[in-house]
Every structure is written in C-alpha cells, then in structure tokens.
Predict the 3D structure of the following.
Amino acid sequence: MPFYVSRGQIPHKRHTQFRQPDGTLYREEVLGTRGFSGIESILYHIFPPTSVQTVEAIPVTEPAAEPLGPLRHRHFRTAELATLQDSNVIDAQVFLLANDDVRLGVGYAGASMTGFFKNGEEDEVYFIHEGSGTLLSNFGQLDFHSGDYLVVPAGTVYQFLLERPVRFLLLQTPGQIEVPARYRNEYGQFLEHAPFCERDIRVPAFKPPEERRGSFAVRIKARGGTLTDIVLTHHPFDVVGWDGYVYPYCFNIGDFEPITGRVHQPPPVHQTFMGPNFVVCSFVPRLFDYHPQGIPAPYYHSNIDSDEVIYYVRGNFMSRKGISVASITLHPSGIPHGPHPGTAEASIGKNKTEELAVMLDTFRPLRVLKPALAVEDAGYMYSWRLSNGTDT
C-alpha cells in the first residue's frame, strides 16, 4: 500500500488490552501478507471474526481455455457480451484471459449485493468504466465513480452497493498489486517525478461498526478458485478501528499526469500499477510529441517477452481502426504489431489525443478463455493488410 492509514478507535500499543464499554475485550485481528514479514493492518472487532454458524462448499466451473491455435493478434468486442443487468458485481464477472499470474475479466452489473464476498487468495483491481456506487468493507466506506481504479487487497470482506449500473474491467492476481518502485523513495513516499501521488489516492472513510447478531453469509474464494459460503453469527463490518498498510483504495485515471517528450514515449511512462510478472498502464488525454519531425503514433514493435492487452475506454484511438468502446485487443509475444495502415501518417501534425485506455502487459503468455470467443473479431489479424501496396 502507498502509505500508513488509521481509522476509528485503536489502542495505544499493539497486542494490548482494548476493552468495550461493558468491559469485554475487542477482538484484535492481524491481516498480514508474506507471513509476518510483509505489510499488514490490524482490525479491532466487537465480535470474534471466527464465530461461524455453518460452512458450505459451492460448486464452481472455471472457464476453459481454447485449444492452442496459430499465433495471431486478437480483438474482442466485450460490450456485446450478454451479461445480465440485474446481476451484482460478483455474479456479472466474465473472465476472458488468464495465466498463472493474472486473470482478466469484464462485467456489467445493475444490482447491489445483498451478501458479502472475500477473495482470500488474490488482490483485485476493478477499473470502473461506467457507473458509480459504494464499496463497503471491513475497512469502511469507499465511494467510486467512472474512471476509478478500485484496488481491493486479498482478505478484504466487501459489498458493492450501486447508484448506477457499472461496467467494469477486473484483474485478479495471487500476488500483490503495488505502485511501481521507481515512483517512490526509500521511505515509500511518492517522488516529485511520479505521475500521481498520495493526494490522488482515496482511502476508506470510517463507518460506525455494525453491532448486529444474526446470520450473515460471506462467500469466500480461496485455494485455487474454490468457493465457500461461511455464515457468520454477526455482521462482518463490526470493526471499531484499524490501522496499517493493507486496505482498499481508489485512484482515478483522470488524476494520472501523462509524461510526454519531444519524440514518442514508450509504454513504461504510462505505468500505474505492477504485480508479479505484469504491469498496468493508463493511456490518458495528453499532448503529442513536439519534435518538428515527430510521429505521434507508436512505432511497430515486437513483444519478444510480453503479451500486450489494451482495454479501450473512450476517445479516438489514433493507432487503431475498427475499435469500439469496451474492445479488448491482445497482441501476443512472438510477432510484431503497431499502427494500422494510414494511422502513422495521419497522426503527423496533430498536437494531442483524447484517448483513454487501460493496458495490461504480461511477461508470461496469456490463455484465451472460451467466453471471449463469442465476441471475437475474427478478421482482426488481417486488418494490417494494405489495399494498394502503400501505408496510406
């Protein structure tokens, strides 16, 4: 996490007596990573977080990957996926690409959650393409809206309440989502040249604890994607206070300050987050290169050791033709890709772009999952062919 946060009531010292008004001890829970050597938060509960009525395994069918075929560029029109508008954010998720480091999915949800969810093995990043609402969690209340990256660490118990239907992109990883190390000094503070800083990050507001007994179902994902429904004897948001470095937070893509130059800048200048063997980048409205002979459109490049995925949010995608809102392109390692015919020449002389997109670069190959095939643009690989033998 970027920095230390404290909310609500906490005792002066860790692991010491902290009592409720009736004299009962608050129950201290350490939510930590990497055993006891990583970042952690400490939460103080009214009720024991281990007080469970029932436990039930939930059958789950993971989407299968397509058989390996020829190496080719892919385009998926995800807005055409038949997702149910009356689904909640968890039930609406459709996963399209995956490897052992990260899974990518999309969804369109129109209903608030009535139960609770915890991903017990993966950090999650929701990019909110459209819509707004509130993420309630055991850390408090976090309001979100269009353009927000909503980062939810593993172990968070949460519930989405929607104000407007939400279209989202979702990344899940068994590792940790982090801010790139080159943006921070040895103390963890953001550096002056970083494209965003602590002021741009929104953390949960304190919400008074829910001091309610009853039956409250929490669906937990853990151990390779298996699902378990645990019914607690109390409301899971019974936390009177917490502090630490593990918590959900929001960062809006509109607060990413683009780094520009005299000539075309490579994708690392757009990096926003990192995880094990992958990075996440934000392409935002920005001024183009200002060298008098500059070509604003990106050059052809071969991803020798990475797959490139771009989720298109809105705007004029200068190097692509035939791309629509919520399209996803996959440019795999092993073959070059670059601007569509005519787009490089057309970009010369333009001084800015209004495009908005999220990029995922993975350093191990991605598998295409079968749900993606229903919305694939099968002709995308051939969209670089020249109609008249020229690049115009």
